[in-house]
Amino acid sequence: MEIPSALVDKLRSAQRVVVLTGAGVSAESGVPTFRQAQTGLWARYDPQSLATAAAFTANPRLVWEWYAWRRSLVAQAAPNPGHYALAKLEQRIPEFSLITQNVDGLHQRAGSHKIIELHGNIQRTKCFDEHTVIETWQEHTDVPPRCPHCGGMLRPDVVWFGESLPPEALEAAWEAVEHCELFFTIGTSGVVEPAASLPNLALQAGAVVVEINPQPTPQTRLASYIIRGPSGVLLPELIARTWPNFP
Ligand code: OAD
Hints:
Layout: H1 5-13, E1 16-21, H2 24-27, H3 47-50, H4 53-58, H5 60-76, H6 81-92, E2 95-100, H7 106-109, E3 115-117, E4 120-127, E5 133-134, E6 154-158, H8 167-178, E7 182-186, H9 198-204, E8 208-212, E9 225-227, H10 231-242
Parallel strand pairs: 1-2, 1-7, 2-3, 7-8, 8-9
Antiparallel strand pairs: 4-5, 4-6
Helix pairs in contact: 6-10, 8-9
Bound molecules: 2'-O-acetyl adenosine-5-diphosphoribose (OAD).
């Protein structure tokens, strides 16, 4: 897929850029996307029915073990060239924000720093009752493990269906989007709110919207540039075209 020269020129001179990423950015690292059929042991479960507080209350062991499986997938995975390209982009743009719906921490592992995590991070847990964040826990005593402070059950520190997003993250995301001139939506199906509204907010704020995704999404119609294909190939190409001498 050809990268439009006009986009390359725009990116080269851009001062304020926001990137929104979704599970597609980690697909080439071997982490299954949310709406992809699950494989193996977990094939008969629908992620959307496991990622809720009600599912956890009904069967805490099942939900904990599903997340433990996802954590092990992420631990075995490595950032792909798309993640590294976004870390490079951050170094070239004066005002840059990477808003991610991903909970896998692969952007951090690729060297990105200016990250706004909208949906939490699977590597952390928090107390189901008191919401205290717990960074380390004993995996093998109770399933789910217990909060060291109150004895309540630990759950992953991610946003489940029906829950609110962390308010500071959401506020930071809106602030960045309202001031950007170029907005990329990459590897997200654009069906989960409020992240799904960010491309429209960017457009309203006067930004040029770019979509990178092998498939169309509900936000495609907002984009001035639509680049169809895998982000692990297209993002390194975009960076190489824009800054040919950047190592
Ligand atoms: P989805 O699984 O809904 O969508 C993944 C998107 O990535 C699709 O649009 C694919 O076409 C695209 N894709 C697949 N392979 C790709 C590749 N190699 N390069 C680029 N794009 C590719 O994942 P999200 O949009 O991230 O929320 O899902 C949003 C939220 O829904 C998740 O954060 C999660 C889920 O419920 C919570 O857990 C709160």
